[in-house]
Amino acid sequence: MMREADDEDALDVRELRPIEGGTWGGLLFDNPRIGLPPALTWSFRFPFSEVTRDYGSSQIFLDIDWLPLPGASWRGMTGQAVRGVGEPAESSVYFFQHHQYDLIDLEIAEQRDLWSLFQADLAAQGRCGRPGDRWVRGSR
Q1: What is the DSSP letter of 95?
Q2: How many CA atoms lie within 13 A of 77 on its CB side?
Q3: Cis-peptide into 88, omega within 30 deg
């Protein structure tokens, strides 16, 4: 996702400016046919300002899905944190298409009723990222 010398259309991490909003939710999932027991996972969406290119503009979103947070509950998210989580969790940034990341750090700093303050960092390594990719950060 970092700008390369020969790719002026690539998204530059300096263009990521968080904006107000975002969503989070839980998903209770199981599949007894293949032996998956019931598990509660979490999804988070962080919006960023639009980024414009000569051919158009794109709203930027940082999405984290299928994230396990052992011990988390709807009303008790404050202090929940994960570091260096990969699969089964998925993370991507949308900029005209999805750009996947391998590792997720997420911390829930504060919760007041349904309002919450989250911070997420993503890193691309190996197959999903290019050498030199940086952490992408979203806060909401």
Answers
A1: S
A2: 24
A3: yes
Give the whole-angstrom CA distance, residue 111 versus residue 131: 36
Burial of 106 (0-12, 13-18, 19+ CB in 10 A): buried
Question: Which pLDDT does position 50 carry in this prediction?
Answer: 92
Integer Cα distance of 88 and 94 in angstroms: 19
pLDDT for residue 103 = 80
In angstroms and rounded to an integer, the radius of gyration of the C-alpha atoms of the chain is 16
The torsion of the CA quartet 26, 30, 36, 40, rounded to 10 degrees, works out to 20
How much of the chain, in percent, has pLDDT values that exceed 90?
Answer: 3
Task: Quote the percentage of the chain above a pLDDT of 70.
Answer: 79
